[in-house]
Amino acid sequence: MSHSSAFGIIGGDQRQIYLARSIAADGYPVWVSCLEKGKGTEGLPAAGLKELTEKCSVVILPLPVTRNGKTLNAPFSEEEILLDDSFASLFLGKAVYGGMMEKLYGTSEVWGSVASYDYYSREELMVGNAFLTAEGAIGMAIREYEGALNSSRCLVTGFGRIGKALCLMLKGLGAQTDCCARNAADLTAIRALGCGALRYRELGGDYNVVFNTVPAQVLTAKALARQRPNTLFLELASHPGGIDLEAARRLKLRVLDAPSLPGRMSPKAAGELIKETIYHMIEEV
Prior knowledge:
2 domains
């Protein structure tokens, strides 16, 4: 990758600002757009979309690129950026990297002629994000739970990337950790980590803190009714989540909605993860 390559960073949240600064620190020319209201852009040249795409051979769009399928995810922009043919046409002849690109592709047929890549599909980014999510979730639990996590009883539902990271970190803190999974191999791996392994039908009660990572309802009204009144629940899964919220309200249980923790709690580390992933992708093209 030549140091004459210019990078354009368009939209996004604090992660993209740290991403831009980190790429600039590596010695590459960097231009930013749609980040006018963000903090930390001092010293980074700003440009309009047309000017940026004229100057830059590599363009990085946010994670996610769009939330509603109609406008760019650009909370720091002073204007709304519509995703249409005119927007897509700006990127012809460029290498475009974005996170969760599917909704973007549905906004214009022009994207079929653009060299574009989804960095959120990469395993190294998803694993890194999982550990940042687990770290952020534990930070929230330490702040919100009245006791200490050390020696407390914690439950993790799901043994995917985030579930694995949570089990490792909670064990390291000295928490008594159980984890629910369906797959027999996962149950064996959970036990190998020194955690209690449960199937969902075996889910009991008496936990201090429960971390859900499953985006399908696994913490049902029946499972919730077994918990202590002061149990703290953290919902880490994407919508609709895994906690029966109606039952939780009825039982007066405390549920914290905690989506997108890397961007909220570790934006610098999350931005640098995106950078490293894009570097890997560029080297492979």
